[in-house]
Design brief:
This protein is mainly alpha-helical. The longest helix is centred in the middle third of the chain and has 19 residues. It has 10 helices and 4 strands. The radius of gyration is 20 Å and the shape is globular. The strands form 2 sheets. A two-stranded parallel ribbon has the order 1-2. The chain has a two-stranded parallel sheet with strand order 3-4.
């Protein structure tokens, strides 16, 4: 079963209550946001716990514990959240060469739109799928990266040519959607970024 946001929040509220934590100090949405960012970085519950144990930060320790309990509840319910779909797919492809080879052959050509808004887990997934044939086409605009708050990493598009040295870049510089006045205003705003 795939848990949507409300399902995940319900489970996390139960975890917070079962841990005896104050839900105002540890709001379910906030804890899930921290967990989501860790999954986007391909950090498991145990790895996160290991990283916070030495910090002596009790708040992070409770979040790490909640992450572990949350994953246990998901497993007990035979469920995944949205982040797990990519997280676990990446783990499977990394750990099982036969599966990786199968899907590399199945998806000989990979196209990713809005590449500037990919996070680390998505970046690794694309890299694993495209590794064998290097038939990868991405579309994106580094000036339009707007999802850093959701884990997007602009370095994915900025370092694309380093990751894939055979890249051929095609710049689409003609804009058919905006007037010149709007384009000039946008340029003046983003040129300092």
């Amino acid at each position: 079963t795939i848990y949507d946001t409300s399902d995940s929040e319900r489970v996390m509220k139960d975890v917070i209550r079962d841990m005896g934590l104050d839900d105002k100090t540890f709001p379910a949405k906030y804890v899930l946001t921290v967990i989501s960012r860790e999954k986007d970085k391909l950090v498991s519950a145990q790895e996160y716990m290991d990283s916070v144990e030495d910090t002596n930060d009790i708040r992070l320790y409770h979040i790490a514990k909640a992450y572990q309990k949350y994953q246990t509840k998901l497993k007990e319910n035979n469920a995944l959240d949205f982040d797990d779909i990519i997280f676990l797919t990446v783990k499977l492809l990394q750990e099982h060469e036969d599966l990786r080879t199968y899907y590399q052959r199945k998806f000989r050509y990979v196209l990713v739109d809005e590449y500037q808004d990919t996070n680390m887990a998505q970046y690794v997934l694309v890299k694993l799928l495209a590794q064998k044939y290097q038939n990868l086409c991405v579309v994106g605009d580094d000036d339009q990266s707007i999802y850093q708050w959701r884990g997007a990493d602009i370095r994915n598009i900025l370092s694309f040519e380093e990751d894939y040295p055979q890249t051929r870049v095609i710049k689409l510089e003609e804009n058919y959607r905006s007037t010149q006045r709007i384009l000039d205003a946008a340029y003046h705003v983003v040129r300092h970024n």
